[in-house]
Amino acid sequence: MRKGPIQSLDHLVLTVADIDRTVAFYVTHLGMEEVRFGGGRRALAFGTQKINLHAAGREFEPKAAHPLPGSGDLCFLTAEPVAAARARLLAAGVAVEDGPVPRTGAAGPLSSLYLRDPDGNLIELSNPA
Fold it and tell me: Could you tell me the sign of the dihedral formed by the alpha carbons of 34, 35, 40, 41, in that order?
């Protein structure tokens, strides 16, 4: 583990074109849980982290300097073997761009699978190799 004052990632924000469509994708295909908070805001929870969702053009302040749907590139560690995830996703009609392929993550080697969410964000699903 690397040492320093930063301990972990609490949440990140994705700007999306359609929050309902994004929630449906992540809940249905990635098994995340929808969370509502702060006056109707919505997020996706997994493990001890979450992804806050901002609707493009109606972002919560403060926001990134140039928030755009489809500009994310995210890697998620999964307990599901990526070969099984590939088969499950393809059976559900979700396009898989690549994988399983070897990659390197923060803690070491990974076996990774690549797909895109409804906004075109690149999603990497990985197992430690």
Answer: negative
User: What tokens were used for 14?
Assistant: 């994705």
pTM of the complete model: 0.93
Degrees, nearest 5: CA angle 74-116-37: 60
Element (H, E) at 108: strand 108-116
17-56 residue pLDDT tens: 999 999 999 999 999 999 999 989 999 999 999 999 999 9
Q: Which residues contact 97 (CB under 8 A, 6 or more apart)?
A: 114, 115, 116, 122
Question: Phi and psi at residue 91, in whole multiples of 5°?
Answer: -65, -30
Catalytic residue among 59, 61, 97, 124: 124
Strands 49-55 and 11-16, bridge-based pairing: parallel
124 classed as catalytic: yes
